[in-house]
Amino acid sequence: GYSTRITITVNTTNLDPCLEGVHVGEISVEANGTILRWAIVIEVKVGHIIIDDLLTLNPCALAPDRCNVGSTQYYGFHGVWAHNRSDVTAGEVKISYVSWKKVSETGWANFNYTLPDPGKKTFGIEDVKIPFEYKNQTHYITSFIQEASTLTTIWDRVNIILNIADDRIDVCSQADISWNASVYEYDGSVFEGYPLFNDTLYHDTVGKRCINASSIVDTKYNLKAFRSNVICCIWDRIKIIGGGVSQSQTNVGQTETVWFIGVYEYDNDLFKGIMGKLFLSVSENMHVIISDDPMNWSSEKDVWAGDYSFKTAGTRTFKISRVFD
Length: 325
What we know:
This protein has strands spanning 21-31, 34-44, 49-57, 66-68, 73-81, 92-95, 99-102, 108-113, 119-123, 125-134, 137-141, 144-146, 151-156, 158-160, 163-164, 168-170, 173-174, 177-178, 183-184, 193-197, 202-203, 207-211, 213-218, 226-228, 231-236, 238-245, 256-264, 277-284, 287-294, 296-298, 303-308, 317-324.
């Protein structure tokens, strides 16, 4: 007689996960035209792993699925045996984006993840390799069912976009800065919240200050990560550096020219007619007799000038009353 080794592969995919033990298979062999039917008893170890729970640690306070770029988030998947729901106590599971992770004695496969830039990751179980002993040999279960949800986290950052209505304003006034164009970088949606600035928006001295966001208050996702543009503003005023009259003593009824020179105090640039207007007031004996009279710009002499004559004798005092820039 002779013998032939026959290898039987049993697909257990459609078997009840709770059934394990002895199963009967039947094969037929064709030999010299005769059909022989052999009954063969095989013993099959059937099993499944169930991923039944998940764990997330260190979530953001208001939105566990959206966290700061660069932050480390902690996760875990829990595994049990399908037939009795007891903890898996050894082996490995393959997690998307993470690769293989050891399973602890309590059934947990823990891992952490971080992204330095805005992005989204969804973590799930891709494969399992869980050992079991059978007839003094180690075998591995690779079939599993994931009952637990996948874990999705968005790492995000707020892009603070500052705009200023006027980058040169009066001293003792407040800069008008808006941030309406600010967005969440991951999806470009409108930022809900407000920035805190590195400096006050009000100044009572001449100078240039650069403003950016120093922190943010995010009322939607409670994010802290942000980046900000920088805008600069000059707090300034017009400084009168010179003035005079064509003649300090003149005849009644004679016209004389009064002139003034003004500059921007911050950079000493000449304040010219294309930039605005100077106004003056005229006083006599401590009483204002002419108020806010607009002066004319002389491009030939680079001065603001006005012509005045009076029908009565007396001393008149000329003073810049206001400026329009």
